[in-house]
Amino acid sequence: MKKFLPLFMLLMTGAIVAPARADLTHRMSSSTQLQVNGAYTDSSRIGSTYTVSGSNIKVASETDHFGKLTAGTATTAATLDVGAYDINTAGSAFSFSESWTQGDAVAAIGTGVDVTTGVVADMPAYGNTLTMSGGVAGNLAGTITSAGVTTLVAGGAGTSATGQFVTEIVID
Known about the structure:
Strand order of the largest sheet: 1-14
Radius of gyration: 39 Å
Strand content: 35-45%
Helix content: under 10%
C-alpha cells in the first residue's frame, strides 16, 4: 500500500487542480491626420541707430557736431543729422568709422499684409520680417480600410498627411 500511496496522491492532485483562465482583450484603432499650414507673417519694427568711433578726429568747427539722431514723430523713425569732421593733428595717423541704420516708420493698422487663398501676396516692409505662405490642399487625402490598409495622397506645398493603424492584444 505504501508503494501506491504516492501514485494515488499524484492522481488526486490532478483531479483537484482547477483549469487555467485568461482574459483576452484585442483592440484595433486607426486614424488619419491631414494638415494644411496657414499663412502667417511676424514683423518687428527696428529703431534708428547711429554709431561713430575713431582716433585723431574732431568736429570741423565749434558749430559742427559728429552725426546725431533727430527725434521722429508718432509715425516716423528718427533721422540722421550728419556731422562735419576733420583730422585733429595733421600728418598723424587717424581712424574713423560710423554706422547708420534707418528705423522703420509706423504702418497704419490694417495695412502691410495681403493674403489671398492662403498665399501671402505682400508683407510689411519692416526691418525684421518672417513670412510663410499658406499651404495648398491640392489632392491631399487619407483613408484606412477595415483591413488596416493605409492610403495617403500628397497635397500641395505646406501640407502633411499622417496615417496610423494600431492593433493591440492583451492577455491577463
